[in-house]
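re: ur msg from earlier - yeah i can do the zinc ion complex, just paste it... oh wait u already did. ok heres what im feeding in:
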Amino acid sequence: MHEYPATKRIVDIAEGRAREAGARRVVRILLDIGDASGYVGDSVRMYFDACAAGTLCEGAELEIRRIRVKMRCRACGALFERRPLTFECPACGGEGAPTAIGRELDVAAVDVE
Ligand SMILES: [Zn+2]
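and the outut:
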């Protein structure tokens, strides 16, 4: 359910960018949702039409890019995908540390016209 306010915020951000650009409407929104963000893409999609109604985002296409959780190796600095039950770096066997990758809910791009 917390996707509803998040979706409203996404619509606000996209509408703000359209206004800044002097555009008539938003054509497409590219949204990055991290696997560990706590947000569900399908729920955002479900609320989108209701949130977009009457705004510059009405009728816009919502594209959702799922971002997998990545860790960074403390030893060699490699970025790697988190796997179940291990934090081990696949390159050197070092210990991985959490990063912000995979925790985001970001408007990555807004296409306007
Ligand atoms: Zn490593």
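cool cool. The first helix runs from residue 3 to 20. ping me if u need the other ligands too
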